[in-house]
TrEMBL record:
DUF402 domain sequence ranges: 61-182
Transmembrane feature ranges: none
This protein's name: DUF402 domain-containing protein
Pfam families from the UniProt entry: DUF402
Residues in the signal sequence: none
Presence of keyword Hydrolase: yes
SUPFAM superfamilies: FomD-like
Gene3D superfamilies, sorted: FomD-like (2.40.380.10)
Keyword Hydrolase carried by entry: yes
Keywords recorded for this protein, A-Z: Hydrolase
């Protein structure tokens, strides 16, 4: 079966799955471009999403490190806050690159979400969040994010040691591109402006 191909203006939903196959988060994206292998999608600030929190009501960051991946989680209605993001999601890459824009539409920085790719469904791309991330500033300076959480996630069985090794290798690849100022860190899409006629992408009913 041929993978789904989405047209500019379509809404897709990026889903973040847990290792057991359950769905943790849903992020709706307005399709900017898609060639069947690489999706470029837009998530503006204040867009409704399905997020997650710990089953005892705490936010993820409110729990001690040793509890963050051991306490069960539940899905909750939420919003994408503060910044808008343009996301490049390649089906065969263990990362997605996010361009962050402020409320005035000015580019801020890149954030590279390291992920395990799980392919596409008719509704959008599926990924497992790899916990470990890379932040890239204009000019190419980069740094690891959440290394301690990634190590704890392995101990808790959230990701495997083999997956973390692959994610680290992907982060090193991304870092080399950033240092060299190569795509996608060469200024491409830093002047992006969404079509003003497009409403914010929406979520389908019945997700909670």
């Amino acid at each position: 079966m041929r993978d789904p191909l989405w047209a500019p203006g379509d809404t897709v939903v990026e889903r973040f799955l847990r290792p057991d196959g359950s769905i943790g988060q849903h992020h709706p994206l307005r399709v900017i471009a898609d060639d069947g292998a690489v999706l470029l999608g837009w998530l503006p600030a204040d867009t409704p999403i399905i997020g997650s929190r710990l089953a005892d009501g705490r936010l993820f960051r409110e729990a001690p490190l040793e509890e963050r991946f051991r306490v069960p989680r539940v899905r909750v209605a939420d919003f994408w806050r503060d910044t808008s993001t343009l996301r490049r999601i390649a089906d065969d890459e263990w990362s997605s690159v996010w361009w962050f824009f402020d409320a005035g539409g000015d580019f801020l920085n890149w954030y590279v979400n390291l992920e395990v790719p799980l392919g596409r469904t008719p509704s959008g791309p599926d990924r497992i969040d790899g916990i470990l991330d890379v932040a890239v500033e204009p000019g190419g300076r980069w740094q690891w994010k959440d290394e301690d959480e990634a190590e704890e996630a392995v101990l808790a069985g959230r990701i495997t040691a083999g997956q973390l090794e692959r994610l680290r290798a992907e982060g090193e690849r991304i870092g080399a591109l950033a240092t060299a100022g190569r795509f996608p860190f060469d200024g491409t899409w830093t002047d992006f402006r969404p079509d003003p006629g497009w409403p914010a992408p929406g979520l389908p009913d019945g997700l909670l």
